[in-house]
Amino acid sequence: MLLQQIDWIILISFFAVSLAIGLYTAKKASKSQEEYFNAGGTMSWWLLGISMVATTFSTDTPNLVTDIVRKNGISGNWVWWSFLLTGMLTVFFFAKLWKRSGVLTDIEFYEMRYSGKIAAFLRGFRAIYLGVFFNVVIIASVSLAAIKIGGILLGISPLQTLLISGVVTVIYSSLGGLRGVVLTDFIQFGLSLGGAIAAAYIAVTHPAVGGMENLLANPEVSKRLNILPDFGNMELAVMVFFIPLFIQWWSVWYPGAEPGGGGYVVQRMLAAKNEKHAFSSVLLFNIVHYAIRPWPWIIVALCSIIVFPNLSDISAAFPNTASNIIQDDIAYPAMLSFLPVGLMGLVVTSLVAAYMSTLSTHLNWGASYVVNDFYKRFINPNSSQKTLVNVGRIATATIMLLGGLIALQLENALQSFSILLQIGAGTGLLYILRWYWWRINAASELTAMIVSFLVALYFSFVHKLYFDPLPTHIELVIGVAVTTFSWVLVTFISKPTDQQVLVNFLTITKVPGRGWAKVRALAKKDSGIEVDENLFGFQKAIFSFAIGVIAIYALLIGIGKIVLGEPNLGYALIFGSLLAFAVVYKLIDKE
C-alpha cells in the first residue's frame, strides 16, 4: 500500500466533503422528482458545463487515453476527438430546442414527438434499456479503472475498491439528487484537473524519462508524437481518423456524445435557468473536454512507454496485481506509483473524485429514467412525490450493484469503449433527423435500437464462432450500414406520427428548417397556427457550428504543439482559435 497517513487524511477528507454536500442538498432534493432529477431547472451554465466535464473526467478516461497512445500514438485519440463534431452540433442545433421542450428527461421526449402505443412502448423500453442496461455498462467501465487504480496504488482487492468508493457515491448522490451531484462535481473537477497536471509533472521528472526534451527525443516516443496520423499507414489512418471523422461522429450513439443530444448532457441542459444557459453550458463543456483536458494524460502515457515499455515490466513491478487486468491501460495508474507522499494523496483523491463524479451522474441519470419514464408512467402514475424520490434512491443503489458485478468481468478500458460504440452504431443519424424531419417516427427509433443491439451481439458472440474476427472499425462500419438501412426502410413503410402530435411538437419547439414544411402548412390550414421556418437562424447555426469546430480543434492542436516543443505554431493556432471564438460570440450575441 503506497498511501501514507497524510495521503489517507486527504482522501478521507474528500469523502467527508462529498457526504456533507449530499446531506446539505438532501432536504431540497426530497421535495419532488423535478428537484431530485432536474434541480428545479435553476442551475447556472458554468456549474452545469463543469459538471458535464467532471462526469467525462472519469477514472477510465486517462486509462483509455493511455491505452490508445501506447498502441496507436497521440493520433489514435481521434477515435474520440471526432465526437467534438457531435458536441458542437448539440450546442448550435439542439441545446435550445431541448430546453424549450420542457420535458423532465430526454426519454419523455418520445411521447411528445411520436404517437400511439408504440411511442409509449418505446419510452418504457428505452427507459430500462438506457437507464439500467447502458448505465450498468458505463458504470462497469469506470469501475474497472477504479479497480486497477485500487490494485496498483492501494493494494486492495477489486471488491474492496467497489465497496469503498461505490458506497460513498451511492449515499451522497441518492441523498442530494442532481443538485448535490452538480455541486460535488465542481469540487471534483478542480481536484481531477489539478491531480492530472501533478501526475504529468512527476512523470516527466522520473529519472528514466529525464525531462520533456529527453522524453520527446526517445525513439519509442517520437514515433508516437504525431497529432495527425501517418497517412502512409492507410489502414491505421482509416481506423483512427477517417472513420471517426467521416462516419462515427454522426452515426454512433455514445454517452456524453449523443448526436442530437441525450442522456446526462440533456439532463444538464434541462436543469439550466433558460435557453441561453443551456446553450452556454454545452459550449463550455466541449471547450474544456476536448481542447484543455487531454494533454496531461497524454504526457503520462508517453512517459509510461519509457518506464514500462512492456506489460511484463508492469507485472514485475506489481506482482500482486491480478494478471487478467494487466493491459496497456494499467500503465497510467502504474506511473502514479512514483508520486511522493502528500502529492500521492492529492492525485489518488483526484482519481477517486473523477470516478465518483462519473458514477454519481450515471446513477442519477439512470434512476431518472426508471422513475419518470417507467415507474411513474407505467407502474404507478398517481405516486406521491415522496414515493418517486424513494424509488429513485432504490434505483440508484440497484444500478450501482449491477455495474459493480459487470466490472469484475472486464479486462481493459478500450474493450468497453469499443463495445459501447458497436451497440450504438447506426442510430446517430436518426437522433439528428428526428428533430428536423417530421417523417421520423417511433417505429424508426425502435428499429434502430433493436438492430444495432443485435448487430453488436452478433459480432461479440456469433461471428467469431464461424469466421475470422474482423477489425473493430470494420465491424463499426457494417453496424452503421445495416442499422441505418433498416431504420430508413421502416421509416418509409410505417405509419407517420399523428398529425396533431406533430403540430403540437412544432408549436412548442419551433424547430427551424424545411424538414417540417408539410406540418407547418397543416398547422396553418387546420389550426391557424403559423410557425416561422427561420431559415436565417438555421443557416447561422450551420456557420457557427463550422467556426466553433475549427476554433476548438485549433485550440486542441495549439496546446499540443506547445507541449510537444513547437511553441510558435502552437501560439499561432491558439490565436486563430480565439479569433474564431470571437466570431462565434458575435453571432450568438445577436440572438
UniProtKB/TrEMBL annotation:
Transmembrane intervals: 6-24, 36-58, 78-98, 127-146, 152-174, 186-204, 236-256, 298-318, 330-356, 391-410, 417-437, 443-462, 474-493, 541-564, 571-588
Keyword Chaperone recorded: no
Alphabetical UniProt keywords: Membrane, Transmembrane, Transmembrane helix
Entries under Pfam families matching the protein: SSF (PF00474)
Membrane topology field: Multi-pass membrane protein
Record has Transmembrane helix as a keyword: yes
Major location category of this protein: membrane
Signal peptide residue numbers: none
InterPro entries given in the database record: Na/Glc_symporter_sf (IPR038377), Na/solute_symporter (IPR001734)
Cell location: Membrane
Highest taxon listed in the record's lineage: Bacteria
Coiled-coil residue spans: none
Similarity comment: family membership: Belongs to the sodium:solute symporter (SSF) (TC 2.A.21) family.
Name of this chain's protein: Na+:solute symporter
Species per Swiss-Prot/TrEMBL record: Belliella alkalica
Lineage: Bacteria, Pseudomonadati, Bacteroidota, Cytophagia, Cytophagales
